[in-house]
Amino acid sequence: MTNIYAVILAAGKGTRMKSKLYKVLHPVCGKPMVEHVIDQISDLHTHKIVTIVGHGAEKVKGYLGEKSEFALQAEQLGTAHAVMQAEEILGKEEGCTLVVCGDTPLIKSSTMEALVNFHTEQQAKATILTAYTDQPDGYGRIIRNEQGMVEKIVEHKDATDEERKVKEINTGTYCFDNRYLFETLKKVSNDNAQGEYYLPDVIEILQKAGEKVAAYQTADFNETLGVNDRVALSQAEKIMRERINEQHMRNGVTLVSPENAFIGPDVVIGSDTIIHPGTVLSGNTSIGADCEIGPNSEINNCQVGDSTVIRHSVAADSEIGSRVAIGPFAHIRPASQISDEAKIGNFVEIKKSVFGKGSKASHLSYIGDAEVGSGVNLGCGSITVNYDGKNKFLTKIEDDAFIGCNSNLVAPVTVGKGAYVAAGSTITNDVPGEALAIGRARQVNKENYVEKLNLKK
Ligand code: UD1
Ligand code: CA
């Protein structure tokens, strides 16, 4: 096996995006374009991945972290110039080097693998990944000679009318013999419509020098879509979403309305789970088997067990157990842990709290900075008073406690195991286990009040 290296071009600003955000960081299904590309390349077991950064270099590096090495292209003089920046890291290596644009987020590892294999079989010095499309505008065109061999790539802006009719395009993904690549890059000039050093010119230079240049055609143009503006971004989003959703359906997940299910690329879902319309699952979310999620729910970075139902609700950065019922209209905020068989009903907000097995907060509660044991019943409107305007304090509610409706638990405070809190109480002192705490004024009835004040009409 030859060694495989990869260079990802990600230094451009992306002028056509008209955005403050650097192009390759624009998300597709919630993940930056360039990260999609790197994650696919990582499946190929490459020896080194070098990302060329320039515009927004620090931000791009921040996103990719350990996934890549980086080379800086301080001035964006073209794609050939960009690849040249990797010379220090890759120049002396033997093997083949994939070059991929950071703005082709739909490219699959299987296609890049096929490209590398074809390149190796052909013993070529350079192999271009090409595709056919009826809308080749903007792409470099593949110019072949009478024998059907690739001669060169002409950029759209440099092409003649005749050349613009060619429907075979350069996808921007290539495989090169590493040594030949860095040698040939030195010979590329910037004598063209854009005054840039074009990477595709390497092809013509090698071809003219009598070296073997090959082209590998992929059947799926969609996969090679280059995102230069927001119209293409929305197309990429749609294609990626369909791809992700199809995979889940093939794995045994029901998507009631696939066009209305927005599932991130790293989300895992168990079989026989039903995803209702308007559901957004993002980040490192995993959903177990036999769950029902949605309609209209947003879940980010959560681990959800089996047979849990989450309807019309929002949850983030939390763990949610099995056979839990959440919603409608609940809000699970970060660092919460909702145990098995718990029930979080309508208009309940949970923040940074442990909520024990089988416990219930069925209506209109705020539970923040709390440790709620198992079998606890929080009555309608009961809340933790966790904040004094400066600091946050812990509320502990031990197993099997019963909190009456509309109670305020003023933290720090503990309600002991099996204790009762009377409805309408404001609890400022700990409640011993199995006690009843009543923290409210006694009711006084003023008899004949209306008559005394002469209010009768
Ligand atoms: C490029 C190809 C074109 C191909 C198309 C496929 C060139 C000259 N043209 O055109 O043949 O059909 O991709 O999508 O290569 N970049 C840098 N540094 C630079 C310039 C660009 O890192 O100095 C990066 C960009 O961030 C981008 C990628 O290279 O990720 C491609 O650049 P872009 O300007 O989008 O090239 P296209 O015009 O799309
Ligand atoms: Ca592009």
Automatic annotation (TrEMBL):
<dbReference type="GO" id="GO:0006048">
    <property type="term" value="P:UDP-N-acetylglucosamine biosynthetic process"/>
</dbReference>
<feature type="domain" description="Nucleotidyl transferase">
    <location>
        <begin position="6"/>
        <end position="219"/>
    </location>
</feature>
<keyword id="KW-0479">Metal-binding</keyword>
<feature type="region of interest" description="Pyrophosphorylase">
    <location>
        <begin position="1"/>
        <end position="230"/>
    </location>
</feature>
<dbReference type="GO" id="GO:0005737">
    <property type="term" value="C:cytoplasm"/>
</dbReference>
<feature type="binding site">
    <location>
        <position position="366"/>
    </location>
    <ligand>
        <name>UDP-N-acetyl-alpha-D-glucosamine</name>
    </ligand>
</feature>
<feature type="binding site">
    <location>
        <position position="228"/>
    </location>
    <ligand>
        <name>UDP-N-acetyl-alpha-D-glucosamine</name>
    </ligand>
</feature>
<dbReference type="InterPro" id="IPR038009">
    <property type="entry name" value="GlmU_C_LbH"/>
</dbReference>
<keyword id="KW-0963">Cytoplasm</keyword>
<keyword id="KW-0961">Cell wall biogenesis/degradation</keyword>
<keyword id="KW-0548">Nucleotidyltransferase</keyword>
<dbReference type="InterPro" id="IPR005882">
    <property type="entry name" value="Bifunctional_GlmU"/>
</dbReference>
<feature type="binding site">
    <location>
        <position position="103"/>
    </location>
    <ligand>
        <name>Mg(2+)</name>
    </ligand>
</feature>
<dbReference type="GO" id="GO:0000287">
    <property type="term" value="F:magnesium ion binding"/>
</dbReference>
<protein>
    <recommendedName>
        <fullName>Bifunctional protein GlmU</fullName>
        <ecNumber>2.7.7.23</ecNumber>
        <ecNumber>2.3.1.157</ecNumber>
    </recommendedName>
</protein>
<feature type="binding site">
    <location>
        <position position="23"/>
    </location>
    <ligand>
        <name>UDP-N-acetyl-alpha-D-glucosamine</name>
    </ligand>
</feature>
<dbReference type="GO" id="GO:0071555">
    <property type="term" value="P:cell wall organization"/>
</dbReference>
<feature type="binding site">
    <location>
        <position position="440"/>
    </location>
    <ligand>
        <name>acetyl-CoA</name>
    </ligand>
</feature>
<keyword id="KW-0012">Acyltransferase</keyword>
<comment type="function">
    <text>Catalyzes the last two sequential reactions in the de novo biosynthetic pathway for UDP-N-acetylglucosamine (UDP-GlcNAc). The C-terminal domain catalyzes the transfer of acetyl group from acetyl coenzyme A to glucosamine-1-phosphate (GlcN-1-P) to produce N-acetylglucosamine-1-phosphate (GlcNAc-1-P), which is converted into UDP-GlcNAc by the transfer of uridine 5-monophosphate (from uridine 5-triphosphate), a reaction catalyzed by the N-terminal domain.</text>
</comment>
<feature type="binding site">
    <location>
        <position position="73"/>
    </location>
    <ligand>
        <name>UDP-N-acetyl-alpha-D-glucosamine</name>
    </ligand>
</feature>
<keyword id="KW-0133">Cell shape</keyword>
<feature type="binding site">
    <location>
        <position position="228"/>
    </location>
    <ligand>
        <name>Mg(2+)</name>
    </ligand>
</feature>
<dbReference type="GO" id="GO:0008360">
    <property type="term" value="P:regulation of cell shape"/>
</dbReference>
<feature type="region of interest" description="Linker">
    <location>
        <begin position="231"/>
        <end position="251"/>
    </location>
</feature>
<dbReference type="InterPro" id="IPR005835">
    <property type="entry name" value="NTP_transferase_dom"/>
</dbReference>
<keyword id="KW-0573">Peptidoglycan synthesis</keyword>
<feature type="binding site">
    <location>
        <begin position="9"/>
        <end position="12"/>
    </location>
    <ligand>
        <name>UDP-N-acetyl-alpha-D-glucosamine</name>
    </ligand>
</feature>
<dbReference type="InterPro" id="IPR011004">
    <property type="entry name" value="Trimer_LpxA-like_sf"/>
</dbReference>
<dbReference type="InterPro" id="IPR001451">
    <property type="entry name" value="Hexapep"/>
</dbReference>
<comment type="subunit">
    <text>Homotrimer.</text>
</comment>
<comment type="similarity">
    <text>In the N-terminal section; belongs to the N-acetylglucosamine-1-phosphate uridyltransferase family.</text>
</comment>
<feature type="binding site">
    <location>
        <position position="377"/>
    </location>
    <ligand>
        <name>UDP-N-acetyl-alpha-D-glucosamine</name>
    </ligand>
</feature>
<dbReference type="Pfam" id="PF00483">
    <property type="entry name" value="NTP_transferase"/>
</dbReference>
<feature type="binding site">
    <location>
        <begin position="386"/>
        <end position="387"/>
    </location>
    <ligand>
        <name>acetyl-CoA</name>
    </ligand>
</feature>
<feature type="binding site">
    <location>
        <position position="351"/>
    </location>
    <ligand>
        <name>UDP-N-acetyl-alpha-D-glucosamine</name>
    </ligand>
</feature>
<dbReference type="GO" id="GO:0009252">
    <property type="term" value="P:peptidoglycan biosynthetic process"/>
</dbReference>
<feature type="binding site">
    <location>
        <position position="140"/>
    </location>
    <ligand>
        <name>UDP-N-acetyl-alpha-D-glucosamine</name>
    </ligand>
</feature>
<comment type="pathway">
    <text>Nucleotide-sugar biosynthesis; UDP-N-acetyl-alpha-D-glucosamine biosynthesis; N-acetyl-alpha-D-glucosamine 1-phosphate from alpha-D-glucosamine 6-phosphate (route II): step 2/2.</text>
</comment>
<feature type="binding site">
    <location>
        <position position="423"/>
    </location>
    <ligand>
        <name>acetyl-CoA</name>
    </ligand>
</feature>
<feature type="region of interest" description="N-acetyltransferase">
    <location>
        <begin position="252"/>
        <end position="457"/>
    </location>
</feature>
<dbReference type="GO" id="GO:0003977">
    <property type="term" value="F:UDP-N-acetylglucosamine diphosphorylase activity"/>
</dbReference>
